[in-house]
Amino acid sequence: MIQSCYWKIEQLPGLSQQQEDNLKSCGVTTTQQLLVKTQNPQLKQSLASQLQIHLQYLNKWAALADLARIPSVGCQYCGLLLHSGIASVLQLSQTPVHRIHRQILRLQVANLQRKDLCPSVDLVQKWVQEARILS
Fold first, then answer.
1. 56: exposed, middle or buried (C-beta count within 10 Å: 0-12, 13-18, 19+)?
2. Tell me: the pLDDT tens digits for 27-68?
3. What DSSP line would sit under 33-54, residue for residue?
């Protein structure tokens, strides 16, 4: 049985020190707490107001935290998936492996000019399998 993984908020990619500190001052120290405080539009809007940030930042962080729940994805690959067009565990569970791998490969080549950094098809398959169990 696979269980969701939760991380310290500072492990989430793309957060500045200031953003981490602001989240912590609102009682958000883990990705699990972030997901709880963003589980519906009212809570999300309330936290965005407390943090004095645009809702799109909070949506991005919540999507990263959701994807990071998948044990084999974690904070290492959640950003890669998000930038490849996968915004949730549910979406990952429903997207064909070959399409995800192709999107990631395209992203890696476009941004880094390196296909060798792309995760293997087997790893992407594992992400999808774990996402199906969690969703």
1. exposed
2. 999 999 999 999 999 999 999 999 999 999 999 999 999 999
3. HHHHTTSSHHHHHHHHHHHT--
